[in-house]
Amino acid sequence: MQAAAFEYVKPKALQEALSLLEEAGEDARLIAGGQTLLATLNMRLSEPSVLIDISDVAELKGISIVGDSLRIGALVTHTEIEDSELVAKHAPLLKAAAPHIAHRAIRNLGTWGGSLAYDYPAAEWPACRLALRATMIIHGPTGERRISEKDFLFSRASQTSW
Ligand SMILES: Cc1cc2nc3c(=O)[nH]c(=O)nc-3n(C[C@H](O)[C@H](O)[C@H](O)COP(=O)(O)OP(=O)(O)OC[C@H]3O[C@@H](n4cnc5c(N)ncnc54)[C@H](O)[C@@H]3O)c2cc1C
Question: Rounded to two decimals, what is the model's pTM?
């Protein structure tokens, strides 16, 4: 099958992405690595009118230490986590879990944020985030909010649409 027609935009900054998302409303979908979304588009389980490609948004990239926390950006791929020295040092559980996610080709493109958007309980990352007592930082048009993995996983917040 083939995806239905959609408008395609590629913001360079987080604020631009948030504005586009607010403007387009429910009809928009974000795309990062495309490993889940492209299949749903092609099967027409999802028919957004606008696809917002966030893969160039610099603020969502990178792994760093902020204060006494390890920060993983939403656009960080599973492979980057697997290969990161910072992760190996500060959160070795993530390094150990990463190779169990799909195979390398999927891990090269699939992102931490794309996985988090579904937070499928049987996936590798939710259990790791629970064990590590991770906090998610979620950006929206009115600012940012923080939510623990426990609250995220057991609330409706993680139930994204295709
Ligand atoms: C063959 C195959 C095998 C897999 N096996 C495993 C496995 O063993 N274990 C496992 O855990 N996972 C597995 N996965 C899932 C994989 O981890 C996800 O497909 C991937 O992480 C999704 O990330 P993405 O960047 O490709 O997301 P996309 O496909 O680009 O987006 C997925 C969804 O997330 C939303 N989204 C993306 N980024 C953001 C963001 N920053 N903020 C808000 N919403 C966002 C999109 O709008 C979309 O709804 C597998 C996938 C495939 C295709």
Answer: 0.94
Q: Which residue has the tokens 């992760």?
A: 87
Same domain, 94 and 132: yes
Calculate the dihedral angle through the C-alpha atoms of 147, 152, 157, 160, rounding to the nearest 10 degrees.
120
- State in Å: Cα 77 to ligand 1 middle: 10
Domain that holds residue 11: 7-58
What residues line ligand 1, using a CB cutoff of 6 Å?
A: 29-37, 54, 74, 101-102, 106, 109-111, 113-115, 117, 123-125, 160
Residue 2, in any domain of the structure: no
Whether residue 68 sits in one domain with residue 89 = yes
> Which tens digit of pLDDT belongs to each residue from 5-42?
999 999 999 999 999 999 998 889 999 999 999 999 99
- 43-89 confidence digits (pLDDT tens): 999 999 999 999 999 999 999 999 999 999 999 999 999 999 999 99
How many A from CA of 35 to the centre of ligand 1? Answer: 5
